[in-house]
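Homework help board

Subject: predicted structure for assignment chain

Our instructor gave us this sequence and asked us to write out the predicted structure in token form, then describe one feature. I got the tokens but I'm not sure how to describe them. Can anyone check?
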Amino acid sequence: MGARGRPSRAELSVVAFEEAEARRPGPPADLAADPAKVWRDIVESVPADWVTPANAPLMASYVRHVVAGRRIARLIEVEEASDAFNLTNYARLLGLQERESRTLATLATKLRLARSSVDDRRTAPKAPSHPKPWEF
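My token output:
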């Protein structure tokens, strides 16, 4: 139960300090510029203690795969826009993209970045049920 009455001037003049914000890990030194930016974006979007020394290697691998997936997507766009469209090369790039997507999905689940790995199915809101056609 909280304190009764209005807060005093002393209580209002205190600035709340969140110590957890200071513990956000920076990207590992061996990450290049693009993966390091992805690292910072992800680390800023999750709670401060989400990335620990134990799962930092997984996070580093995840951000490398994000960057690789983006590069493959750009190569696919170039191939699609090319006048000399090569179906064999295009199929190979699509295979690489699919492999990167699977790896990203696995790592996101392991790091609990994927929504499905965080939501509790028992308490998640259920989709509204529509009447079945024979119940009209």
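Reply (TA_rk): Your tokens look well-formed. For the description, you could write something like this. The chain is about 55% helix and 0% strand. That's the kind of observation they're looking for.
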